[in-house]
């Protein structure tokens, strides 16, 4: 009966989102209804919701806020554009896909998917017009890189939220995520479009210089600003992983904390800005405003997750799947992928699944790999109930069939390769 109630709750969530109800409102409403139907007292339901919101946001709200500030500073300063120009100049037309892919990975780490897409899409069109190459041939590597970073790499909201829920080490999650992201991005972003697309397009090539660098920051400033948080977290994680105590270990422990790493990065980014501090502060404020709804959706997802935990649903799923002889990582991916196909939102499906698969951690499933498995599942088969699907369709002026054969196939390939990579990593960690 409890599983039927859960299925009813998920179906209700799907209907509400399909009816264009805000996901935050839909998640809170469904969490309350599901909790009551599962027999929880009303007071316990509301306590669970408060605890779920607090525990989810408490571990990550500053990471999300500082990450959004960082992303907006990078966008407004022109650092993202500068990185694009440098890489395109270095790779040339023949290897232009590699330049776009690497750009997407670099820009995608600090920027959220939608922001990264909007920042890079004009440059994709400019490259296409300059080289005569198909827009999709250039655009799929960009979208793949942004999608991979969105699913696997902190400080994106999904991986950060999951790391908090599963009590995973964010530094290790980032290192494992990078190990997966690069080969997956190459397969789905370089070789996949080469198999399905014509390289050239029948257009008049516009001979203008793509190296018009306007008043962009220097290369060193651009790369430092974009990559500093990642370097700090990785350095801190490696430096603090040694068993022995030494003088500098407390510093590395401090740097491994994503809040500390991002705070240092924001301060350095502000120091490198050419604009006034007032303008830079406006950029920081705009960055936080842009993710306010994302934070609220994550908070509501945390509430739903807590209802599933406190009602014993997670233990029920664990008992029912115990006899299936499936890897917990595979099971987590299957549950999340099913929710993704049903609900559309990668973040919502990942957070909903987390409450169901949390008890599986420890049964041969390291917390960091559970984050990546759920992240991979959350990218599976994006279709008409996902905003990313429509964004890709409209920007590239595609039919539904074309969008399914490009965007949806690319996302599904990333998801499946992510699962394979997680299962392989589990053999070595």
Automatic annotation (TrEMBL):
Main location: membrane
Family (UniProt): Belongs to the GntP permease family.
Subcellular location, record wording: Cell membrane
Membrane topology recorded in Swiss-Prot or TrEMBL: Multi-pass membrane protein
Top-level taxonomic group: Bacteria
Protein name: Gluconate permease
InterPro entries found in the cross-reference section: Glcn_transporter
NCBIfam families: gntP (TIGR00791)
Keyword annotations of the record: Cell membrane, Membrane, Transmembrane, Transmembrane helix, Transport
A Pfam cross-reference name: GntP_permease
Transmembrane segments: 52-71, 136-153, 173-192, 223-244, 250-271, 291-309, 329-353, 360-384, 404-425
Record bears the keyword Phosphoprotein: no
């Amino acid at each position: 009966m409890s599983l039927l109630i859960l299925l009813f709750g998920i179906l209700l969530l799907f209907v509400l989102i399909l009816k264009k109800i805000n996901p935050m409102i839909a998640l809170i409403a469904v969490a309350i209804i599901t909790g009551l139907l599962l027999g929880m007292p009303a007071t316990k339901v509301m306590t669970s919701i408060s605890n779920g919101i607090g525990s989810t946001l408490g571990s990550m709200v500053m990471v999300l806020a500082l990450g959004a500030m960082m992303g907006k500073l990078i966008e407004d300063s022109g650092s993202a554009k500068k990185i694009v120009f440098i890489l395109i100049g270095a790779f040339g037309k023949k290897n232009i896909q590699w330049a776009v892919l690497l750009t997407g990975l670099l820009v995608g780490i600090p920027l959220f998917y939608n922001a990264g897409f909007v920042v890079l899409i004009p440059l994709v069109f400019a490259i296409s017009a300059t080289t005569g190459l198909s827009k999709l041939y250039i655009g799929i590597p960009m979208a793949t890189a942004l999608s991979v970073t969105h699913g696997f790499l902190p400080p994106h909201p999904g991986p950060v939220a999951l790391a908090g829920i599963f009590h995973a080490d964010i530094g290790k999650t980032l290192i494992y995520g990078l190990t997966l992201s690069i080969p997956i991005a190459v397969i789905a972003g370089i070789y996949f479009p080469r198999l399905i697309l014509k390289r050239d397009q029948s257009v008049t090539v516009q001979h203008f210089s793509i190296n018009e660098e306007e008043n962009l920051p220097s290369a060193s400033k651009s790369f430092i600003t974009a990559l500093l948080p990642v370097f700090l977290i990785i350095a801190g994680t490696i430096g603090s992983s040694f068993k022995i105590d030494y003088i500098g270990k407390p510093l590395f422990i401090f740097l491994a904390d994503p809040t500390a790493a991002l705070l240092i990065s924001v301060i350095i980014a502000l120091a490198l800005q050419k604009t006034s501090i007032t303008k830079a502060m406006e950029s920081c404020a705009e960055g936080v405003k842009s993710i306010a709804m994302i934070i609220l959706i994550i908070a509501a997802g945390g509430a739903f997750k807590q209802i599933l935990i406190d009602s014993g649903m997670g233990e029920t799923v664990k008992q029912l799947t115990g006899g299936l002889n499936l890897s917990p990582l595979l099971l987590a991916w299957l549950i999340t992928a099913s929710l993704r196909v049903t609900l559309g939102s990668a973040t919502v499906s990942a957070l909903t699944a987390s409450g169901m698969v949390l008890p599986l951690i420890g049964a041969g499933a390291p917390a960091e790999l559970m984050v990546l498995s759920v992240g991979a599942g959350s990218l599976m088969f994006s279709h008409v109930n996902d905003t990313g699907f429509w964004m890709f369709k409209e920007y590239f002026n595609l039919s539904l069939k074309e969008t399914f054969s490009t965007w949806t196939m690319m996302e599904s390939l990333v998801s499946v390769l992510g699962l394979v990579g997680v299962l392989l990593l589990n053999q070595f960690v």
